[in-house]
User: Fold these one by one.
Assistant:
Number 1:
Amino acid sequence: MKNYFMPAEWDKHEATWLAWPHNKNDWPGRFVPVQWMYGEITRKLAESEKTRIIVYSSAHEKQAVRILSRVGANMENVEFFHFRTDRVWVRDYGPIFVRSENRTAAVDFKFNGWAKYPNHNNDDKIPKRICRKLRMKRIDASDFVLEGGAIDVNGEGTLIATEQCLLDAHVQARNPKFNKKEIEQTLKNHLGVSNILWLGKGIGGDDTHGHVDDVCRFVNKDTVVLCMEENKKDPNNRILRQNMERLERMRLEDGSKINVVPLPMPKAVVFDGIRLPASYANFYIANSVVLVPTFNDPNDRKALDVLADLFPERTVVGIHSVDLVWGLGTIHCITKQQP
């Protein structure tokens, strides 16, 4: 795919995509507060960019408008698109937007419900429907499974992912017929990268089996934040230390070392005996703000301070996400940038 590349998330957006909640099973007993959380997220996004919201009907749109009006969102920057979806995690099933010198296109990878959930057929059709509606060039990559939360890029040629998510051929295997070299070449061909960095595992509680956006994120072209767990009894402690050891040996596309900034972890968030994927790394970089999930935890302030230092030209805003993470994802998982 010549001349197209995936821009970094901090590059200027034309819009951010969301899918308004409708599957109550994702948030048992918490569906109502999650809708209000969507209202607050949209309010912050619409201050500086278009916010394109997927709804499944006129009635669904009215539900969203009622909440957005009450929270004071800038409705001039809100657009609704009527597409049927299964769930809200548009980061993973939405198109991955790429740029050439003067054109935006969308790569349509296969979405198979994280190789775990059967209710994904509507979600898998979203990239095609978005491209048709926007009259945007669609690049068919439907022979390869990839979720947006499985990768992160610096926009200069380097991509980071975990072996657990993309290379495991037995547990939630995305592309079991592809070997490592073939997977790397597919990523390079479709996303315009030249340098792929492999971390080991993702955090505990992540039902995606190792998405990198809960672990490690680029914050500029040569710097990442990496989650670190101080509690040695927590299983994440060893996993994240091993990822740090890997990063210290890795190099960027130009051969330079990576600046690694530690990001704390909140204490374990547990629901019904199950650990949830609570992580400050699941932030979203918008045009004027960085939206960061918080968890009523003493480390909330530490994480916000770390990110505020790294994004001096943006306002870093904490979004209370204890209810949202009951659905096994937070802010980065429900957003998708369109450059």
Number 2:
Amino acid sequence: MNKDFYSILGVDEKASQGELKKAYRKLAKKYHPDANPGDKKAEERFKEISEAYDILGSKEKRIQYDQIRSGGGGFSWSDAGGQASSPFGDGGLADILRSMFSGGGGFSTGGFGKRRTSRHTVVVSVPFRTAALGGTVRANLEMPSMCPVCMGAGGSGEKTCLQCAGSGRTQQGQMVMPCPGCSGTGKTYTDVCSRCHGTGQVTSSEAVDLNIPAGSDDGSVLRLITPSRKTVMVKLRVNPDSFFRRDGRNIHCTVKISAPQAVLGTKLKIRTLDGKIVLKIHPGTQPGTVLRIPGKGIPYRGAKGDQLVHVEISLPSSVSEEEKVIWEKLSGTEA
């Protein structure tokens, strides 16, 4: 069955924009997820209400909707509740409108800069090792949500913005920008909401356990459904490590050895992503030597990269008289 947005909001098709807004705010307050935590039916009802108001709350979209609903605009519509036939495919009216108004990615509120969507992007810091090998990170996500006081309206006493004449945009040279007077909405208010200061949104914090896939890199984006059923896009910020440096699927590290160790060889205990191992330094190792430890890098498609160990030789900045004699013997400059 196709959705009737007027029925969803419980108003007549001849209802004024003010009546539509009043109906929406009443229903949104009743079914808002914050007021019904964990109630999936209420969440779906809230989505339906928001979807309906996204279309009917905009005069331009409402006109298009009414044309489609009555059979105009090149679409055929069955009063018996049939599907609409259109170049967009065989989906229902809501799908057609979604394609027309938002390209399938969420509904616009009608303002130049604002979008009503449940998706938000947050940045979460992840330890280097967790990003490399995978694991769980506990994070507090700061996310915007609809203001519970004004139900997203931003205030009361709505007026057309005088600065942009209701268009929601201003032009500076060749650039079209959101109007600074109304933040792109085309509207201002006589009484601005004291809770959200006219934005229609407030910030809430939600604690989640975020599962980090092995091999995640700095800037990777994960899609998360929070316990309160909000869709969040999480951008990972991988913390630098004091020892490791990443290069694709390989990791690099640097160790310093003394000149005698380089000449005679030695064994070093070094850190890998999996724990410490003993690395053998062969006699005669030269400065700048790179030793490869297979399979100790970043996991990728069932395999792992390598760990590359850069060897630096540390020379003393000063020597004792006894040490000086030894160095002179080794260099062949002894008197």
Number 3:
Amino acid sequence: MSGDRARRRGLTRRDFLVAGGGATAGLILASCGSGPEGNPAVSGSTSGGTGAKYEGPNVSLAFWNGFTGGDGPFMKDLVTQFNSETDNIEVKMSVQEWADYYVKVPQAVASGSGPDVGIMHINQLATNAARTVILPLDDVAQTLELQEDDFAPIVWNGGTYNGQRYGIPLDTHPLGFYYNKKLMEQGGLDPESPPATGDDYLAALEDLKSKGIEGHWVSPFLFLGGLQWQSLLWQNGGELYNSEGTAATFNSEQGVAAMTWLVDLVKNGYSPANVGQDADTIAFQNDKNAFNWNGIWMINAFKEIKSLDWGVTQIPQIGSEKAAWASSHNFVIMNKEGQDPNKIDASKVFIKWVIDHSVDWAKAGQVPADNSVRTSQEFTALEEQSAFAEQLPYVHFPPPIPGIGDIDVILETAVSEAVLLKKEPADALNDAASTADETLQENAEKYGTG
């Protein structure tokens, strides 16, 4: 992957693994801050605002995030606009790679420095909540008059852990189905009618194969092959873990069926046998791969390639029900010892303002979490983002279990072994589940949840 494409993409495999916690296992272990008790974000602050307006003294907010890719300028513009419209709050945005961000934030909070407000992926909330890096935000949500009816239920509920809210959702970024219209035409398919069912999908791949086109390149990496497999697992009615989060269940009949479907794409010649990292996406944009299940973050990247004739829609329903992998960016407030109550009040105002203006964030390649923004005429005019938004009723997030991202590396091994035909799908998943169970037990002891 070229450096230019990495910048446009905004989410690398390393970023993805770190967002899940896999690359930072053991780095967010020291308890940070002094706990939520007595903190004005929890107990209710009356220092300078109600969430809609801040009337306290001038404050400067440190706002950290990992928007180093094509999404960064969009957030920068929002911060600039907020600062221009707000007299007594100045937001200073610091951007770093997600991999570095998730290491630095706990360390900075523990020392009483670092950000006042930040962004975290949905699968980081439980880990950072368990280690008191971030504050419970139930009172903040109440102050901002935010409730479940304002959001898609899964997005709203995804911001909670252990009965408390720790994240205020900004967006959702699901997996979608990109299709190369030029290759579809070459394969005798209607480029304006992408396949939507399992039977139609395999028939389309067979038509493409008859014209010498490998239609769906299967990545042996978690990003993106593993995200496709997880989507298929859920489509088959399976789950990654049991309801208590104490045991892996991804090696179920449903999980094996999902992995077998992907492996059969390789065995039947619809995909090359050994797809390199990001090679599936590069092949798509170079008119060599007709179908690419990828994230919403690719919209602007593909738009920059003027020669590429493409469309995007919902992931085909291969299994018995609709489902798609997704993640979400949430606002968090840090649990810094001695935090200024005025900064917490100012953070509320900033969070609410960005959510209210999140149609501009949607242009970065995101689905706004707020229903009123998502149903606005300005958002519905964003054709590609609106296509992704149609999946919200059936997207799936990882469960809110501290340290759950540690399992991502284990899952990647299973996907790689199966897709590269080194192990049968059942064997690869059974071996991974055994290792995952050990990790889940270790994490339960580490985070005090067992």
Number 4:
Amino acid sequence: MYNEIIIVGSGFAGSVMARLFAEAGKRVRLLERRNHIAGNMYDYTDDNGIRIQKYGPHTFHTNIDRVYAFLRQYCVFDEYHLKCEAIIDGVATPSPFNFKTIDQFYPAQEAQKLKSRLVEYYKRESATVLEMLNSEDCDIRAYAQFLFDKDYKLYTAKQWGLAPEEIDPLVLRRVPIVFNYKDTYFYDKYEGIPQNGFTALFENLLHHPNITVQRGINALEHLQVQEQDRVMLFDGQSVPIIYTGAIDELFGYRYGHLPYRSLYFEYERLPQKSFQNVAIVAHPADAAFTRITEYTKLPYQEVGEQTVIAREYSVLYDPHNQRGNEPYYPVLTEDSKRMYEIYKQYADQFSNLVLCGRLADFRYYNMDMVVNHTLSVFEQISNSDFAL
């Protein structure tokens, strides 16, 4: 019987997995490269009492009952409905685009005709820009082309460093076009922000006598591939290992470097109560930054005549750069997906290794998706001899 399960990474995948194994009576050692837990969900309160999400804005939203039920064991969610805008030709318009967008950019009579046509044509509340670009209706196509040219194409080029046709279509489907006046970013069954922040949620997840957390540890310095027996060793021992980091880095880039996008942020404290209408405003046409987050609106925080904004920049991930040295988003192209499959087939040969998480799976997960996936992976391996 193994004495300990090694889990690499303290984001959602690693922390949820650690808790599940701990509850099942297993001893877990969780290793985190950074000096804090919670991965990219990490938040903190600054010297002026403003809670800031260090690695970019996050809110919780899901339609998956079991994900909400699981996380509710470790926090109280304050209801919060995210609102966003995008700047088009100097005009702040709701994001996702809705009927207000049509009113802002079309004469009144044309706007009414287009809104009616969209409702009649789709008979549902939303569609993707890709669907609308392929519509048989010329007015719908023209509206979609306007939005594509003014927002989707420009934002995609900055965010991903690729032309839209090079990107997995799933990325362009993430933000729909809405056929009503609803002005929230999500319309899920459950939406909110943990009452004391995301870091507190992770602290509760990892607070268990069977879990030992070690920060500031580069697990790759302790992992060794044993080719002959197809096992992954930790400090020379064959133990169960759950790895949530980048799969190409784990195997020393033996099949090449998988592409990721990274982010960096420029923060500014302002002596005013409010800077912009909503928490997040996208700037597709600006030459450099992609969006601005105002943290006193995420969640809403009463801190007097002050606010903090963060301009967000998207860059190609490079671990050697001073900025952009954290992998955030897998860049899903046909070539990158093929390379990932080669890595995955190789990883599957290691009997004591389980991969789980956005970087390990090379998937563009939302937080509820990674929690749900982790629950499923745990169910699979707990019914196997992986951690006997």
